[in-house]
Amino acid sequence: MSHGVSRRKFLHGAATGGVLAGLGDLAFLKHLPTVSAADMVLTQGRVSLAPDIEPLVRLLEDTPRARLLERVAERIRQGTTYREVLTALQLAGVRNVQPRPSVGFKFHAVLVVNSAHLASLASPPEHRWLPIFWSLDYFKSAQAQDVRENDWTMQAVDEARVPRAEQASDLFAHAMERWDESAADTAVAALARDFELQEVYEPMFRYGMRDFRSIGHKAIFVANSYRTLREIGWQHAEPILRSLAYALLMHEGTNPADRDSEYDRDGRENLGRMQEIRADWTEGRLDHGAATQLLTTLHAGTPAEASAHVVELLNAGVAPQSLWDALLCSSGETLVREPGIASLHTVTTTNALRFAYDTSRDDTTRRLALLQNAAFIPWMRQQRLRLNGPLAKFHLTELVAREGKTSPEDALTAIFAEISGNRLQAAERVLGYLEAGHSSEQLIEQARMLIFLKGRDSHDYKFSSAVLEDYYRVSPEWRHRFLASSVFHLAGSGAKDNELVARTRAAFAS
């Protein structure tokens, strides 16, 4: 088994050998202030960021798109930090981009901030500005779309209606259950002022997963806003939480509390179904066979059958990890069966629900995350996917490793070239590469760098950050197949470069 060369040697060889020929164009980044790992971690006990965050937010809001990168570059030269730019980007998004009529589309400018941050966090220090600069430009595009639609701006909260701290939790819960936007808005403002992150997000996790509107974007916004607030500081929570509550209450037609909508039905049924799960359900055995059985149900069963199968396996003593193996692999299998934006959301939503499962301290929320994720994948298959292409009946367990007799570096070159030509063969090459014992870290790092160079859409960042993170959440027996499925949306080396690197280089040219 060969884990090969060092990262530095690999990147040098890859760049000179043609795998990442465009990396030479990133040399200008060495002139920027380096973003160290310490710069990206919130200092314990820190109360606030720099006092001029509002002017920085206004700069993002008011500067024309064509000039924004240059203006931010000027601020960075003057000492503005990575965290301040990240904070201003998130706040500008929630204040200027409405999460309606669907928690998606233009609102990806907000949803993608954490994904870009994760990409930065996992990158070499000299490359960590690139995802954030991409997000800055994307925010201006979304802001312009919002202006064209209705020019929405978050208004000041109605201070006269903000409840006292001791009333806030109950009033918020009642407002969310009744889908009452104005009451939820004032109650969540009180929560932001008087409670801490984990206390506020426990109910948010549940409300993010209770319905299937916006194909998972509600759960994604909950997870991503939690993670972003953990980085930028709770003192910025109020506008973010108000945007989140408003997004979670998005619905079609009349009040969902007064009717039985197909979007809510599985959630309501799972609230009852989870009561059937044994009390010590978090303990159990890892069971590859049980994961395979659940993967089969997710492939062809109904939402109710998938959720019921989860209950059955838990009660039979199977560990939750084996069920998550099936859920994560099924999300990747769905993407292979019908590559595209809709199926991609089975991956990003599963990532968000797994985050809720890992982060919540509430037993009910964690049970519901498993059951709702199990229902969501077949729900997407039935509601949103055509599944009539050449791989419509694809089973991840049947993927065959394509063996190569070349060096790890040449194997990676072939993989990323194949992604631009034949993604199924690329998946087979990934499986062969990993089963030969070559470095998954090098494959992941190259995939992420190609997103920097080739990515054009928020989904490129959302998907890559989700799947490259979840690779380490999948058990070793399934891990390689899960990562192999990701090539059905990762960027290939033959894709056209985006314009971001050239624009960022120009912004720092002086």
Report on this model:
With 510 residues, the chain is mainly α. It folds into four domains: 32-41 and 53-149; 159-252; 262-383, no CATH class; 399-488, no CATH class. It has helices spanning 7-17, 53-62, 65-77, 82-96, 108-121, 129-149, 165-177, 181-194, 197-209, 217-232, 237-248, 262-273, 288-300, 303-315, 320-337, 341-359, 363-383, 408-419, 423-435, 440-454, 458-470, 476-485, 500-507.
Instruction: Give the strand content.
Output: under 5%
Radius of gyration: 23 Å
Amount of helix: 55-70%
Q: Treating each run of at least 4 consecutive H or I residues as one helix, how many helices? A: 23
Task: List how many beta strands DSSP finds.
Answer: 0
The CA-CA distance between the termini, in Å, is 48 Å
Give the overall shape, derived from the CA principal axes. globular
Identify low-pLDDT runs: 1-19, 42-50
Mean pLDDT: 90
Q: Please give the largest β-sheet.
A: none
Q: How many separate domains make up the residues? A: 4
Order of helix and strand elements from N to C terminus = HHHHHHHHHHHHHHHHHHHHHHH
Structural class: mainly alpha
